[in-house]
Amino acid sequence: MTLADRMRDLRSQAGLTKTALAKPRYTVSYVSQIEAGRRTPSPQAMGYFADRLGVSSHFLTTGIPEHIEEELRYGLEEARSHLRAGEIDPAEQVLGPLEGRASQYGLSSLRAQVLALTGELLVQKGNVHQALDLYEEALEGELPERDAGMAVAGLARAYRTVGDLTYAAELVESFLAKPRGGPLDPSVAAELQSVLVSVYMERGDIVRAERAARRALAVASQGASMELRAKTYWYASRVLSEARRWEEALEFATRARILMEELDDRRGVARLHNAYAFICIESEPPRVAEAREHLDKAQALLVELGAPGDLAYVLEERGRLALLEEHPEDALAFAEEALSGAQPDQLEWARCLSMKGRALAAIGRSEEAQQILREAAGSFRDRGARQQEASCWRELGELQLAAGDVQGAAESLRSGLHALEPERVRA
Length: 427
Hints:
Low-confidence stretches: none
CATH superfamily of the domain at 3-62: lambda repressor-like DNA-binding domains
Structural class: mainly alpha
Shape: elongated
Mean pLDDT: 89
Largest sheet: none
Number of helices: 24
Number of strands: 0
CATH topology of the domain at 3-62: 434 Repressor (Amino-terminal Domain)
Order of helices and strands: HHHHHHHHHHHHHHHHHHHHHHHH
């Protein structure tokens, strides 16, 4: 709506004639020219007419209520706080009306921020494909660079969740490579590097993951939020555990958990208990009692929060622990339960499928195990998770060799070697 339309409508709503609005300071002709779009009032005249019409000068000039931007920003921050605490329903209730109000008043930058945060909400709800659309629409809008960087990180995480590791990496790398006048905000840089750590780890690019983790730690120390420092510690612990530096990995995981507890981010704390358990299971010798203790804490928190997607990760670790303790029937039960909640995260679904195959093999159901492992290998291949694909082929080859299928075992092992070829990329 133009100033002319707004002034005419407000005058009509106030029951004023042009004469009544103009007198005693201005002429009827002056009011007519404004309402026809031929004149723009001076600041003094705008203040006079706004007072007569019962609105603020800001509203008469822009059509935007005086405090609407502040209210929308407050709503965004309130929704973010709910999401950090894992409170999905309250966050959704706050976010619901914000986009419409931002659109109503033409606040395109705020609307884009609402869309990006709604994308994050949808990821937490498991509606990842819908989240992709919102993130991309947000990035087409007028986002400040900091918000754009965070939206790129969210979009890349969502693509990682659906299994498109190559595109997830390209999104982040492209944003980081853009020419800009100065350095990125440390929080944004730490977030983007942390996403790259996760993606590179999934792809089996350990050298790149280590470099991204070092960059994330460096920029996080320059003023990133507690939440992002916790995230960089978390990913550093994953890289260190891959390098079999168990004590350092556990130290970084503990640092991350302490920060998350200070933030009262219960979902983050649960994820870190699970990450700590993973390191305990992988360490040499395995720390079985510690792993179980942390898994119990993670599961209790996630059940309380009602987070079935995150619970799948905990069930996967419980299955791995059961296999370590030679309880394959329990491992199979955990795998089946995890698969029912892992579907939105295609890589997690493939990991749970792989664990199911190993559990079936340990029980002695070799043919079923081979079929499941072959399916898991194909799922990892389709998503560019080369190291995990190779692991499935190796497990399959060992099963085939034990069954006397030497030719099949040789083909599986060759497939595993092919998966690890550095030049191989997703089609």
